[in-house]
From TrEMBL:
Record-given protein name: Chitobiosyldiphosphodolichol beta-mannosyltransferase
Membrane topology: Single-pass membrane protein
EC code(s) of this entry: 2.4.1.142
Similarity comment text for this entry: Belongs to the glycosyltransferase group 1 family. Glycosyltransferase 33 subfamily.
Function: Mannosyltransferase that operates in the biosynthetic pathway of dolichol-linked oligosaccharides, the glycan precursors employed in protein asparagine (N)-glycosylation. The assembly of dolichol-linked oligosaccharides begins on the cytosolic side of the endoplasmic reticulum membrane and finishes in its lumen. The sequential addition of sugars to dolichol pyrophosphate produces dolichol-linked oligosaccharides containing fourteen sugars, including two GlcNAcs, nine mannoses and three glucoses.
Pathway: Protein modification; protein glycosylation
GO CC term (a single one): endoplasmic reticulum membrane
Name of a matching Pfam family: Glycos_transf_1
Keyword Endoplasmic reticulum carried by entry: yes
Annotated signal sequence range: 1-21
InterPro entries: ALG1-like (IPR026051), Glyco_trans_1 (IPR001296), Glyco_trans_4-like_N (IPR028098)
Single Gene Ontology MF annotation: chitobiosyldiphosphodolichol beta-mannosyltransferase activity
Length: 464
C-alpha cells in the first residue's frame, strides 16, 4: 500500500516540474524565432526599420513591430502574416510649464509606456532598436532584454544628441545629458549596425562601440516607372494638385491628358507630351537639417534664366513629406511669384512614392547630416529608380553620391542653380548630362536591400 502512495506522491511532484520544463522549452523555441522591432517614431516614415522587419519575416522569424502609426507603412508589411504591428501611444507636446519640464514628462511617459508594452509581448531572441530617437528607448530595451534574455541590436542612423543640438545648441545641458546617456547605454548592446563607414569609425574611436556598416539599399519596388503607370499617377495627382493637370484640353474628349503624358482614346497608348515640363522631386521630413531656402533660391534663379530666353523647360517641383517645418516653408513658397516654375508639397501614399521617383527627371536632396556621419536614404531610393540626384555636400556624402557619375554635389543655391541650368539645357536631350547619369545608374550593379541584409545582418544574428 505504501509503495503505490510513494509512486503517486513522486508523480505529483515530478509532473508539475516536467510540465514547467516543457513550457519553458516551448517558450525558448518560440523566442528563438521571434524578434521585437522598436521605433519610437512613425513606423510609416521609418523605411529602414520596415525593411528590417520584412527581411526578418522572410527568413522565418515572427516579428512584432512597435511604433507610432501616424502614416501608412508599405503594403508588403501590412500583408505579411509573420509581422504584427503594435501601436505605441504618442504623448503630444504639453502646453504648460518650462520646456525642460515638458521634455522630462514626455521622456518619463515614453519610458513607462514602452516598458509596459514590451513586457506584455512574448519573449524574443532579439530586440531591434532604431536610434535616434534613443532617449529613453535604449535604456528601456536593454532592461527588458536583461529580464527576458533578449539580445539588443541597435541600428545607428545618426546621433540623437546632435539632432537636439540643432535646436538647443551643442552645449545646452539637455544636449550634453543626451550625449552622455547615448554613449553609456549604447555600449550595452550586443550588436550594433550603422549606416556609414564614417559613423562606424566614429563609434569605435569616440564611443568604444564596435559596429558593422549596413549601407541603405533600395527595396525592390524602387525602380523606373513604366509610362502607362506614370500617366495613371499623374492623372491621380492632378485631381488634387494643379501642377499635374494639362494646360489645354485634348481635341478628343475621350483622350486623357496630364501635364506630362497623354493616353490615346483609340489605341490606349501613352506618350509623353511634346514640350512637357521637367519633373524635379525632393523628399523631406521638414526638419532643421534640411534648408529648403537653398532650393527656392535656385528655382528663382532658374526662372530668371528661362524668362531671359535660355533654352530651358518649364519646371514642376514636387516636395513630398511631413514634418514640423512644412508650414514655415509653405508660407515661403506661397510668397513666390513663379511663372515658369510650379511647386507643390503633397503627402504621398507609400505605394505612390516609388512611382513618383521612377517618373521624375531629377532628384534634389538638401539633407545635411547633424553629425556629418549619416546618409540620406531618400537618395538611395532615387538611385534605385535610376533617378540622377543633385545633393548638398557634407562630410561623408561621397560614400553614396559620386560627383559626375550618378549625380552632382553642390554647396549653395548658386551652384545648384548652375547645375539645374546645365542638366535641363535643351531638355529632353538624349545626349545630355542628365541622360548620361541615368545610363550610368542603369548600368551600375543595383544591390537591393534583401540581398544586402542577407549578406551582412543575418550572419551577425547567427553568430550571437
Amino acid at each position: 500500500m505504501a509503495a503505490p502512495c510513494l509512486v503517486l506522491l513522486a508523480l505529483s511532484l515530478l509532473l508539475p516540474l516536467l510540465l514547467l520544463g516543457s513550457w519553458k522549452r516551448w517558450r525558448r523555441e518560440r523566442a528563438a524565432r521571434h524578434v521585437l522591432v522598436v521605433v519610437l517614431g512613425d513606423v510609416g516614415r521609418s523605411p529602414r526599420m520596415q525593411y528590417h522587419a520584412l527581411s526578418l519575416a522572410k527568413h522565418g522569424f515572427s516579428v512584432t513591430l512597435l511604433g507610432f502609426c501616424n502614416s501608412k507603412p508599405h503594403d508588403e508589411l501590412l500583408q505579411s502574416d509573420r509581422i504584427q504591428i503594435v501601436q505605441l501611444t504618442e504623448l503630444q507636446n504639453l502646453a504648460v510649464g518650462p520646456r525642460v519640464l515638458q521634455y522630462g514628462v514626455k521622456v518619463v511617459f515614453q519610458a513607462v509606456h514602452l516598458l509596459w508594452m514590451l513586457m506584455w509581448r512574448e519573449p524574443a531572441a532579439y530586440i531591434f532598436l532604431q536610434n535616434p530617437p534613443g532617449l529613453p528607448s535604449i535604456a528601456v530595451c536593454w532592461f527588458v532584454g536583461c529580464l527576458c534574455g533578449s539580445k539588443l541590436v541597435i541600428d545607428w542612423h545618426n546621433y540623437g544628441y546632435s539632432i537636439m543640438g540643432l535646436v538647443h545648441g551643442p552645449n545646452h545641458p539637455l544636449v550634453l545629458l543626451a550625449k552622455w546617456y547615448e554613449k553609456l547605454f549604447g555600449r550595452l548592446s550586443h550588436v550594433n549596425l550603422c549606416v556609414t563607414s564614417a559613423m562606424r569609425e566614429d563609434l569605435a574611436e569616440n564611443w568604444g562601440i564596435r559596429a558593422v556598416t549596413v549601407y541603405d539599399k533600395p527595396a525592390a519596388f524602387f525602380k523606373e516607372t513604366p509610362l502607362d503607370l506614370q500617366h495613371e499617377l499623374f492623372m491621380k495627382l492632378g485631381r488634387t494638385h494643379a501642377a499635374f493637370r494639362a494646360c489645354a484640353d485634348p481635341g478628343d474628349p475621350a483622350t486623357e491628358r496630364s501635364a506630362f503624358t497623354e493616353r490615346d482614346a483609340q489605341s490606349g497608348m501613352v506618350t509623353c507630351l511634346p514640350g512637357r515640363p521637367a519633373l524635379l522631386v525632393s523628399s523631406t521630413s521638414w526638419t532643421e537639417d534640411e534648408d529648403f531656402s537653398i532650393l527656392l533660391a535656385a528655382l528663382e534663379k532658374f526662372e530668371q534664366l528661362t524668362l531671359a530666353g535660355d533654352s530651358l523647360p518649364s519646371l514642376v517641383c514636387v516636395i513630398t513629406g511631413k514634418g514640423p517645418l512644412k508650414a514655415h516653408y509653405g508660407r515661403l513658397i506661397g510668397q513666390k511669384s513663379f511663372q515658369r516654375v510650379q511647386v507643390c508639397t503633397p503627402w504621398l501614399e507609400a505605394e505612390d512614392y516609388p512611382l513618383l521617383l521612377g517618373s521624375a527627371d531629377l532628384g534634389v536632396c538638401l539633407h545635411k547630416s547633424s553629425s556629418g556621419l549619416d546618409l540620406p536614404m531618400k537618395v538611395v531610393d532615387m538611385f534605385g529608380c535610376c533617378l540622377p540626384v543633385c545633393a548638398v555636400n557634407f562630410q561623408c556624402l561621397h560614400e553614396l553620391v559620386k560627383h559626375e557619375e550618378n549625380g552632382l554635389v553642390f554647396e549653395d543655391s548658386e551652384e545648384l542653380a548652375a547645375q539645374l541650368q546645365m542638366l535641363f539645357s535643351k531638355f529632353p536631350d538624349p545626349a545630355g548630362k542628365l541622360s548620361q547619369f541615368r545610363k550610368n545608374l542603369r548600368e551600375s550593379e543595383q544591390l537591393r536591400w534583401d540581398e544586402s541584409w542577407t549578406r551582412t545582418v543575418l550572419p551577425l544574428l547567427m553568430d550571437t
